[in-house]
């Protein structure tokens, strides 16, 4: 049992191999952005309303034409069989039970069809590959599997230098594969001293020189709503909308790409202002509690993506419990803030307490 999502982190740390723990927990470079995400979220303050007569807050959210039980989706995360034998299937099933979407990673360790079959509502996350025919195939497969949106990640022209993985010479165990690429020879299983085998694999598979023209091609290649993940600059958010995006995800990849990049929560407001009502805005990176969720909604997001805490819960057989805990925290936070629904959360006044980074 856990009293907070952070409890799963310590529980998982006690049982996972060091290299796997570091692969999930780590950020890029000196991990400054990794720390900034939490510090910036902690610095946001809320001004609650009182005497609103609320006793049962409504947590439901409408996103891209579908109703979610709460404004939370499971973030796309690679190779979940590192944490649990059933990996993505276990977490997708828990998301289905919780009434929230599961976003399938390109680098999932079960096939996207298997995961979509376990999820009630799924999106597919796409990394931009060197092989455009493979992109077409993945997009087509996602549509046929019933995925309701396509989320393209645009902040990984190359994998950020993740020093924990380098120092661990991290490589995937033989039983954990990129299941959507059964015919692809992968370097990810071959450990090399002083290198990350996973980074070597992505360097060979991912196309670094992606442009807005590629995004426009993708928009013209699918009828699925297109969501662009990895937006921090409001100018890029506006351009994504102009290119046909139905949504953007304000994200610094959980501090795993450009180190010293702005905290996602600090980038949220300017992005919301830039796009207005022209697209859905989601927030990713650093969400750890129901209070964090209402901070994001108060600052203009329609919903959030939750990542690492659910992987820790997966490792300790507690994903259903974790999602229920997050839902209860959200409900209690809304009740304490005097909010009957998410519209009321969006009208809350926020403040900011200055923090000084250390460590």
From TrEMBL:
Keyword Oxidoreductase: yes
Pfam families in the record: FMN_dh (PF01070)
UniProt name for this protein: 4-hydroxymandelate oxidase
Annotated positions binding FMN: 76-78, 105, 125, 153, 229, 251, 284-288, 307-308
Active site: 253
Sequence similarity: Belongs to the FMN-dependent alpha-hydroxy acid dehydrogenase family.
Keywords: Flavoprotein, FMN, Oxidoreductase
Keyword Heme listed: no
Source organism per UniProt: Kribbella antiqua
GO molecular function: FMN binding; oxidoreductase activity, acting on CH-OH group of donors
Cofactor(s) this protein cannot do without: FMN
Top-level lineage group: Bacteria
């Amino acid at each position: 049992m856990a009293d907070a999502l952070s409890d799963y982190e310590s529980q998982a740390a006690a049982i996972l191999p060091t290299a796997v723990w570091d692969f999930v927990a780590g950020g890029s470079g000196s991990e400054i952005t990794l720390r900034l995400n939490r510090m910036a979220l902690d610095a946001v303050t809320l001004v609650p309303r009182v005497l609103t007569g609320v006793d049962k807050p409504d947590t439901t959210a409408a996103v891209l034409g579908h109703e979610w039980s709460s404004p939370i989706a499971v973030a796309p995360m690679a190779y979940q069989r590192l944490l649990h034998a059933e990996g993505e299937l276990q977490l997708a099933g828990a998301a289905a039970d919780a009434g929230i979407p599961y976003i399938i990673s390109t680098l999932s360790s079960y096939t996207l069809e298997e995961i979509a079959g376990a999820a009630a509502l799924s999106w597919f996350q796409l990394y931009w590959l060197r092989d455009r025919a493979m992109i077409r195939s993945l997009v087509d497969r996602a549509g046929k599997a019933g995925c309701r949106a396509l989320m393209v990640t645009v902040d990984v022209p190359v994998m950020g230098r993740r020093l924990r993985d380098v120092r661990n010479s991290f490589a995937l165990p033989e039983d954990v594969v990129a299941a959507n690429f059964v015919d692809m020879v992968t370097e990810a299983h071959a450990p090399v001293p002083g290198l990350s085998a996973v980074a070597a694999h992505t360097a060979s598979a991912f196309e670094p020189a992606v442009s807005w023209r590629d995004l426009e091609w993708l928009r013209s290649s699918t009828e699925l709503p297109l969501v662009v993940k990895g937006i921090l600059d409001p100018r890029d958010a506006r351009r994504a909308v102009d290119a046909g995006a139905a949504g953007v995800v304000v994200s610094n990849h959980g501090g795993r790409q450009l180190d010293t990049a702005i905290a996602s929560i600090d980038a949220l407001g300017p992005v919301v202002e830039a796009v207005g009502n022209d697209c859905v805005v989601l927030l990713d990176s650093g969400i750890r509690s129901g209070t964090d969720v209402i901070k994001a909604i108060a600052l203009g997001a329609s919903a959030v993506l939750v990542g690492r805490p659910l992987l820790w819960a997966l490792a300790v057989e507690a994903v259903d419990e974790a999602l229920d805990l997050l839902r209860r925290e959200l409900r209690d936070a809304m009740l304490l803030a005097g909010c009957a629904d998410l519209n009321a959360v969006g009208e809350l006044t926020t403040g900011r307490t200055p923090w000084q980074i250390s460590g």
